[in-house]
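Re: your question from the hallway

Yes, I did run it. Sequences:
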Amino acid sequence: MFLKVQLPWNVILSPESLEASDLKLQESIIIRLLDDFAAKKATKDLGYYIAVTTLKRIGEGKVRQHTGDVLFPVVFSALTFKICKGEILEGVVHKVMKHGVFLRCGPVESLYLTNLKMPDYRYVPGENPYFLNDKMSKIGKDVVVRFVVIGTKWMEADREFQALVSLEGDYLGPVSSPAEI
Amino acid sequence: MEKGGKGYSSLNKGGKDDSPAKSAKGRRVQFAEDSFDPISGSSPMSGGKAASTQFKGGKGEKVANGGKSTGSKSSKSSEFGIEQELPKNVKCVMNCEAADILQGIQDRMTMLSKDPAIKIPVSFDKGLQYAKSNSHYTKSESVRSILEPLADLGVSEAELCVIGNVCPQTSEEVFALIPSLKVRRSTIEGLVREILRELGKLKKPM
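Structure:
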C-alpha cells in the first residue's frame, strides 16, 4: 500500500552550487533533495520511493570542515509504496510458466504465484500458456488478479522487493480480462 | 524462483527438504524459512505450516470465477494485521488518495520536467498508473471520512486502507479478506454494512 512519511534528511551542497540569493539557494537545495530522493529508489523499511510531496522546512546550513561543503538539514514528506504480508492487492500477470505465474503490481515487478497456491487451476500449455479452473476462469498474460501477499523479500543489491502471493481464500482470483495496471 | 535456487526451502512440507524434489508433479518451488521472512521479523514459517493468509468458508465471489476455499486457518501475521510490517511513523494512504496526490504532482511536473536538473523517481510513473487503475471512488476525501467511524471501534489505519483499496461489495467480503477484523465482527459488522452502502454511492462507473 501507499505510505506517507515525514523524513529528516541532510542535503549537502558543494561550494560551487551555493547561491547568493536565498531563493536560488532554496532552489538548489530542493533540486539536490529531489536528486537524492530519486537516486534512493527504495528501502527495506519504507518500500519504493514514489514522490516528494511537501517540503516542511530547511534548517540552518553547517559548513563541513575540510571539504567546504554545506550541510542543510531538511524535513519533507514523501509518498512510498510497500507490499506487506497479509495485504490484498491486484497485479497483472506478465509471465506464465508451468509451475506458476509472475505478476507485477505498481513498482513491484517480481511477484510470484505458484501453482500450489492456485487452488483448482491447471496449466494449459501452448504458444500462449495459461492456467484454467473448472469454472473456466483463466489466469494468463495480462490478466488482472487479486491475491494475498504471503511473503516478501528485500533484495539489497537490486534495491527491490520480491514477493510470494496466493489465491487461497475467498474473493481472490482473476478480476477481469486483460487490462493495464 | 528456480529449483535449487539459493536460499530457498520447502514452503509447504517439512521445512527440511533441501534437495530439489522430482515428484510426479515436476519441480517443487522451494523457499527458505528465513529468506522470505516478513520484514517485521516475526517468526518464520514453522515446519509443515505455510505462512499464508487463508480464509474459512466459501461464500461469495467478487470475481467471476473465484472459487470456494477448503477450510483453512488464518496465519499468525493476519491475526495481528498488516501493522507488523510497517514502521511506526508512517501514515497509510489509500489508492484513491495517492492517485489524487500523484496526479497533482504530475500536472506540475510538465513545467518542472523542462528543467533537466529535476530528477523524477523511477517508480513515479508506475506508482501513478497503479494508483489510478486501482482507485475505485470518485471522491477520495469522502472515502476516508466514511471509513473513519471504524477507527473509533478499534480498526487500524492499515485495515481501513485495505477496505478502501479493495472496494468490497459485502461485509462477508470484508471479513474474508481482512481476517484480523474477525475478532471485532460482532461490534463492527452493522457499521461495516452501513459504510459499504455509503461507499457504493461513490464508486466510479465501470
